[in-house]
Amino acid sequence: MQTKTPLAIAITLTLAMGAAAPLHAAGQDVAATSAVATDATDLDRIEVRAQLESQIRAVDLKRSSDAIEDAVSSDALGQYPDKNVAESLQRLPGISVTRDQGEGRFVVVRGLDANLNSVSIDGIAVGTPEDSSRAAPLDVIPSDSTERLRVVKSPTPDMPGDAIGGAILVESASAFDRDGRSLRGKIEGSHQQLSGETSPKAAINYSEVFADTFGVALGVNYQNRKFESDNSEVEYDGEDDAAPGDVTAINLQRRKYEIERKRIGANLNLDWRPDEDSKYYLRTLYSRFDDAETRQRLIVNFDDADMVATGTDQFRLDDLPADAIQKRMRYRTKEENTFAASLGGENRLANAVVDYRIGYTKTEERVDDEMEARFELDGDDLSGTLDQRGRMPRYTLSSNDWMDNANYAYDRMILSPKRVDDKEHSAQVNVRFDDDNASYKFGLLGRWRDRNVDVNEVELRRGPDIDLASWTTGTPEHRHGSLGQGMSSALMRRYWARNSGDYSARPQETGDNAVTSLEEDYVASEDIFSSYAMGTWDIGALRIIGGVRVENTRFKAVGNSVDVAEDGESYTVQPAVANSSYTNVLPGLHLRYDAADDWVLRFSANKTVSRPSYGDISPRVGYSRGDEEVRIGNPELDPYESTNIDLSVEKYIGSTGIISLGVFHKSIDGYIVETTRQNDPAYDGYDVTTSINGDKAKVTGAEFNWQQQLAFLPPGWDGLLVGASGTWLDTDFDPGLEDREGEDFMLPRASRHVYSAHVGYEKYGLSTRLAAVYRSEYLDSLGAGRAFDIFVAPNTQLDFSLDYKFSPRVSMYFEAQNLLDKPLELYQGTRSRTLQMEEYGRTYAVGLKVAL
């Protein structure tokens, strides 16, 4: 038998080009399928390299799936310049990401909030280190820790139902995924344009099968990335009924971020297959994400001056007090850990197949050292001008004293530690009975989840003055203007370690400190018990899957009710307790038809559910009598429940290509929104902020995907690989805002258009790819009126990769990310009112890969 390597693999074609894939009945003997492959050894062989191999695997996963899904294989992860799982997933149709410091963090499926997705690692649901959200950040998982990624957009009844957006399945490698012994390693150095820093990255993966029955797969990876970003943010104000372009900038901030981000990942997977009827496995995956961030900030408060209009969007600033100009220095380290382990097996009995699994996941976040020192300019009043005719306001000041740190006086120190623990135990069992052209499947799943959130913040304004000049460093470079002299977070931390005992809160801030340290704390447990029954019937080329899933949820939580006196000098706190229980019945019908000439048609109609965010449902009350404000959690919230319809048609082009078109519709009952109202009879005269179940939200969309190797071209050109995808959305929902009745609203975080495209070439030892992703604007949050709604501007990401093989076992690669140097831009009301502009620069990487 010819030896296969990861870089050059001989694949036996089991189907003639253009022939339709056979539809196997559910539960068909695996040995029979293996026999077909064995009998095909005399067919032609093709040599498949990294990009093409991964494309074949992704196409095969989609074609063989009973659900509507898309996938990315491990080789594809190596070909894109992606640092984490979130960025790898954005290449799929209908998928976009929200970013943190330029890196993809949360995955958005079909325009729906990441809160509405479920995420699992090797079949085990994973929690989130976020204190109030259910959205699982996927930047904490390095791409090198995974073998394949799948996004199921219409789950079958045997899958958990909490997937209104989609079910994101992260799978690590089994030794049986590879052929014989495999040892792969890579080292990399990356250079970030703004910081000028070069950062290391390394990964090694090993797998081997012993005696054809026992497999071991092990992977370890490490990255330490140092980078910077330049940020400017503007605050606008005006009348509640103002037109979007009529609000005025009241302050402008420039922020400089210096970040050191470390990722460590490891996975150990064991498989034992003593015979054809038995499989046993252990899957473990660990990732650690450390983020050390320094933020320098300059703030100019224009509204503290007498603002005199001198023209359209032009103002003269008179009598601007010195303390309207502020400097702030923040430092914090954030550690997020994720661990997932599952132990299970599968046994083929005389009349049934039984599989079972127990699992444990733990996610945690630790922010133990967050501190921010605030200073105000001390001196005479200033004057100046403000011009907001451009997308980013410009200003001038009559004196440059603000640039010198020696002219600033200490204002306050803010400490903001936070700890989040999220643990889940689970157990499940499935039984499948096979009949001629049919199978019947039943299963039980129990999930027991515990969360503990401790969010603290305290302001300390009493204490000795701090000489900011003693923390001075060189002036930091910033693309949008000067921040004046720089500040050293290392010197700030050193000072605080010696002198923190000299600082305390003022009496009038006792209540506010109690609110910020107690209001968001809670301890919660969530128990979910699920059962399902599902049947699969094959009628010729038609497969029918029908069934129902029932999920019962029991939620318990204890939070705090904090009542602050009007003078702010005292408060009372009492425990707030919540208990809820509800049951969701989730039917599903899925049809798949394998037509002639490699056409596949799919249809599904089902119901899915998503549970309220922890921050929305947790019991809490923050009562600020001085500010006449009340913030309330709402344990009475109902879960989101969605009725979904999907229809798709797919044309497979040999074993490497696909053209697909799908349409879908979601009708979501009880879409949860945050509201502020003034007519609550229980809090007369107060602004009451809480979350409620709004009216129905609707999502209608279409997805297109095409990818293909252009093998029909003349020699030399036949190494081209091309692909393009597009998603079009029409969304509508009523947030239930009393002052905005009759307005039409986009669903938050839902882009109307998401496009991606790539062109690659693989031949003569060369593998190269240029990939682009475009996401149109989307609504980020709702304000009091149209002029206060916040939008994220359109964005295009363009990346390039090149890999050259010196031998079948050694290759070098080059990657370039964010080639267009596009910023993250938010605007308020209209595009001419830029709210936030954050730039990251380009990143380049060079690396070496070895396969033994």
Automatic annotation (TrEMBL):
Keywords per UniProt: Cell outer membrane, Membrane, Receptor, Signal, TonB box, Transmembrane, Transmembrane beta strand, Transport
Keyword Lipid biosynthesis annotated: no
Main location: membrane
Topology of the protein relative to the lipid bilayer: Multi-pass membrane protein
Keyword hit for Coiled coil: no
Residue intervals of the TonB-dependent receptor plug domain: 63-167
Pfam families: Plug (PF07715), TonB_dep_Rec_b-barrel (PF00593)
Gene Ontology cellular-component terms listed: cell outer membrane
Top-level division of the source organism's lineage: Bacteria
Signal peptide as annotated in the record: 1-25
Transmembrane spans: none
Localization annotation: Cell outer membrane
Family of this protein: Belongs to the TonB-dependent receptor family.
Descriptive protein name: TonB-dependent receptor
Organism this protein belongs to: Stenotrophomonas tumulicola
